[in-house]
Q: What sequence folds into this?
RNA sequence: GCCCAAGUGGCGGAAUGGUAGACGCAGGGGAUUCAAAAUCCCCCGCCUUCACGGGCGUGUGGGUUCGAGUCCCACCUUGGGCACCA
């Protein structure tokens, strides 16, 4: 329980007001029961209403909800409730992304079973989430670790295998040579295994892959149609897919061996080639590795370190001259072939030609190994040769080529590339090709707590898919998790099975699926969560697509790209209609919840972190409540357990109520940016809700007397309707709330009569209902609103009430504001200019002379240039 | 290393290329009260001025424009992602 919050607010509750006080706990329980009783959040296809599907990225069941969840689900709830009140059948489901490593880690660290740990956490989190009053259809809830869910996922896998979307090949993993186990990237710390501390190596395993690269072009082209996605996410995805056009050609070997195919996106720099580089995983490197101890040692050196692109890109550049020589296709010059650790086998052909003058990596490499650097072009105004910095102009910049083979002189990089590809194709020694950076999706994981891959290995038949009637292939419960490695691999009997093809004794695949598979189709499953096929087409047809998807920007690439792939795969396999190939119509990426960090130092000057609720504030700054030691305050960062800068939503809800928590996370920052949780901000939110409760209760008790300024109040009301509606529809929740503050101020100050005030207060309840649904129901009832506010149709602003008769125009002199005038809204340009020229400020600035220019923007501004 | 964002008062932030700082917090002053809390009213970017006013001001440096927080270029700092964290 958050003592700080309770103490801080004790005084609010101790008031002696005769009016009933704002009792959040009582109000929230009362209205949650009313909603349950009326079953208002059950998604149905009835009534001929348009549908609206709002989905927040489902949580990993860590066991505790955090403020990030509160923010994420509150945003979705605002949209869902708003859409309910605008006449939609709303689908707003919740589930659990329940497979993954933390459950296995917990089992290893504290004992127990991943299954029990996970389902226990789900129960806890559901219990913490329900008090938030979210408009969720809980009857559709599922966890990805339910056999009913992952069995359907296995069926999907088999269908994808049938259609050629799944295949096997070798791929590298992080290998811990001490624990003899595969490590996740997260488990590699500074190149070492997190438990053993051993230097990690890259090792090849045969693994299952989804053929996402087949759809690279389509996934890229379809980005254009994602009108309601953030531009930055679309750009990140486009860059990730990485379409490039380049030249593919071969270097003939001097020794007559098989030619080396290379791919380059800068064929125009072929004159500057100083060596040919191949990946340590290139077939030629592998062949040499087998017969040459020096090569084997070098390649082994290259395989040290993790598999991440970051590790490979930032590693020190290493090279080995193979002694092989190739012929430059144009000049006939001999070039050496080097093995280089920064060349990826996965991209292009796994071999390149290096042009050090115009590529920084190549240049660093050539300087290190003393290879020649040949300039192929210069800037138009600078002939100096490349030194330590490669000359890499934008492809749209014009440069001057030196003695170019395709006859180029001054040209842009783009034109030069096209001309070179043309030249090579005409000469018959090369071909223009389009390639993608996107690699196929490796889905095999050597872990227990995931969806088993429904495959059987038979000595006679080879790799055989399991029969659908045998699904789900369930995870065994009796496993030992106390040692590293995959417990399925060492289970005495689970692997044993009959071959689905010939019936002979066979062995199950022991790898499980990447948890990204689980989250790549859950949105489709929510449309028919109990169907005995992956989806029910009629339900999918009605509810898909997700109209509004909401989640963290950290999922901008992988999760969203994999989901887009899966929707297409499900369409091909008959589980989704054509209309649902692109599953998320609109995407919103919200920011994180942050908090200040409080730290003291131990005797060794190491930081000791403290929870916000243990801090006291004095005139001299922050100190520890218990002992009074001064505390250093570090600027806000993402809430994390290790830094203890966390505020538990459960504490906040019991101190202030859910409506305050919801109001605050929406009010203080634009939703796409981070929000800093502050105790004073939460207090302010709570005080405001108290004030709304008090004001509306007073209005409810007013007599029917007429007052002054009814029309002004109603104008304010219509403006509030207009702006709050716009704010909600455009995810401007903080702006909508600012308007609600202003409208509340206007309502409080207004001297209007009871009728106008009640009308305005009921509209206030409606406008606040998506954000503070419990308080809104209470006010609505108090003011005699009909039924539940969740069922009341959203108010519509009267355009006639939104226009002002006069406008205030600022007058600038040379772009600086010097005066303002108030004029009728429709006054003509010439009259406005005349009035402006007569103001003192303009006369003073002109000093009797004529202005150079006068700009009048009607209804906006006047600028006099002197 | 590569890709993508974000930087505005003491603080969170607002602002279709058109009055920078809406709204909220913190702070100051006042009303109410025996007193306090709660509540209500007023002030509140920085410098300068008794005041009227003037100058400066949206991370830094340039540019486009009658006019730039907003558009363009370069840089700095912080955050997200980099394919086995979810």
A:
């Amino acid at each position: 329980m958050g003592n700080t919050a309770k103490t801080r607010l004790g005084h609010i509750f101790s008031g002696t007001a005769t009016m009933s006080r704002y009792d959040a706990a009582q109000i929230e329980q009362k209205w949650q029961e009313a909603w349950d009783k009326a079953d208002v959040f059950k998604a149905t296809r009835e009534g001929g209403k348009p549908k609206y599907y709002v989905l927040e990225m489902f949580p990993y069941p860590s066991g505790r909800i955090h403020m990030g969840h509160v923010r994420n689900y509150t945003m979705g709830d605002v949209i869902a409730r708003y859409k309910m009140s605008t006449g939609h059948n709303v689908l707003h489901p919740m589930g659990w992304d329940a497979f993954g490593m933390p459950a296995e880690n917990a089992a290893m660290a504290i004992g127990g079973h991943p299954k029990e740990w996970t389902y226990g956490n789900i129960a806890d989190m559901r219990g913490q989430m329900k008090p938030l009053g979210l408009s969720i259809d809980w009857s559709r809830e599922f966890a990805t670790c339910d056999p009913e869910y992952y069995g359907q996922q296995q069926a999907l896998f088999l269908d994808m295998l049938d259609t050629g979307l799944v295949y096997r090949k070798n791929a590298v993993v992080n290998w811990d040579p001490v624990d003899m186990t595969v490590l996740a990237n997260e488990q590699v710390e500074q190149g070492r295994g997190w438990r053993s501390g051993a230097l990690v190596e890259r090792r090849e395993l045969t693994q299952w892959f989804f053929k996402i690269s087949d759809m690279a072009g389509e996934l890229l082209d379809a980005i254009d149609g994602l009108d309601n996605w953030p531009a930055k996410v679309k750009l990140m995805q486009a860059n990730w897919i990485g379409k490039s056009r380049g030249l593919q050609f071969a270097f003939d070997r001097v020794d007559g061996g098989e030619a080396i195919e290379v791919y380059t996106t800068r064929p125009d720099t072929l004159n500057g080639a100083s060596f040919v580089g191949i990946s340590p995983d290139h077939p030629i490197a592998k062949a040499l590795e087998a017969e040459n101890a020096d090569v084997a040692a070098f390649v082994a050196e290259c395989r040290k370190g993790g598999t991440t692109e970051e590790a490979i890109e930032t590693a020190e550049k290493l090279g080995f001259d193979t002694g092989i020589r190739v012929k430059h296709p144009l000049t006939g010059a001999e070039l050496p072939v080097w093995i280089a650790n920064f060349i990826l086998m996965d991209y292009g052909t796994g071999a390149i030609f290096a042009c050090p003058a115009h590529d920084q990596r190549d240049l660093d490499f050539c300087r290190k190994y003393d290879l020649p650097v040949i300039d192929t072009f210069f800037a138009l105004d600078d002939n100096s040769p490349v030194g330590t910095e490669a000359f890499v102009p934008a492809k749209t910049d014009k440069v001057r080529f030196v003695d170019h083979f395709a006859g180029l002189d001054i040209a842009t990089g783009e034109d030069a590339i096209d001309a070179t590809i043309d030249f090579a194709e005409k000469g018959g020694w090369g071909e223009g090709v389009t390639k993608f950076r996107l690699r196929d999706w490796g889905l095999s994981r050597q872990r227990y707590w995931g969806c088993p891959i429904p495959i059987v290995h038979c000595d006679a038949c080879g790799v055989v898919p399991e029969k659908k009637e045998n699904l789900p292939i369930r995870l065994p419960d009796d496993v030992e998790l106390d040692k590293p490695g995959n417990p399925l691999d060492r289970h005495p009997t689970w692997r044993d099975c009959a071959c689905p093809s010939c019936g002979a004794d066979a062995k199950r695949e022991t790898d499980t699926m990447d948890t990204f598979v689980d989250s790549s189709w859950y949105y489709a499953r929510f449309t028919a969560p109990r169907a005995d096929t992956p989806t029910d087409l009629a339900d999918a047809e009605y509810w898909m697509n997700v109209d509004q998807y909401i989640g963290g920007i950290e999922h901008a690439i992988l999760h969203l790209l994999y989901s887009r792939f899966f929707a297409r795969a499900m369409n091909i396999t008959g589980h989704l209609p054509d209309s649902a190939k692109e599953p998320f119509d609109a995407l919103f990426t919200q920011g994180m919840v942050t908090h200040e960090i409080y730290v003291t130092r131990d005797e060794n000057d190491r930081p000791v972190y403290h929870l916000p609720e243990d801090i006291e504030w004095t005139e001299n700054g922050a100190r520890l409540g218990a002992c009074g030691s001064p505390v250093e305050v570090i600027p806000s960062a993402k809430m994390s357990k290790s830094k203890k800068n966390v505020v538990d939503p459960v504490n906040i809800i019991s101190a202030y109520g859910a409506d305050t928590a919801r109001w605050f996370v929406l009010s203080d920052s634009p939703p796409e940016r981070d929000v800093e949780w502050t105790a004073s901000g939460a207090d302010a939110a709570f005080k405001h809700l108290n004030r709304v409760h008090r004001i509306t209760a007073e209005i409810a008790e007013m007599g029917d007397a007429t007052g002054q300024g009814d029309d002004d109040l109603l104008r304010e009301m219509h403006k509030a309707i207009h702006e709050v509606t716009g704010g909600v529809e455009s995810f401007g929740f903080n702006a909508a709330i600012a308007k609600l503050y202003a409208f509340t101020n206007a309502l409080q100050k207004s001297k209007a009569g009871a009728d106008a005030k009640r009308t305005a207060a009921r509209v206030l309840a409606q406008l606040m209902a998506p954000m503070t649904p419990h308080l809104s129901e209470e006010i609505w009832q108090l003011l005699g609103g009909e039924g539940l506010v969740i069922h009341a149709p959203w108010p519509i602003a009267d355009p006639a009430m939104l226009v002002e008769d006069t406008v205030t125009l600022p007058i600038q002199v040379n772009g600086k504001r010097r005066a303002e005038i108030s004029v009728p809204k429709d006054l003509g340009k010439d009259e406005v200019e005349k009035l402006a020229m007569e103001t003192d400020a303009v006369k003073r600035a002109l000093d009797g002379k004529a202005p150079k220019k006068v700009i009048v923007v009607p209804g906006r501004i006047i600028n006099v240039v002197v």
Remarks:
- The radius of gyration of chain A is 33 Å.
- The longest strand of chain A covers residues 166-176.
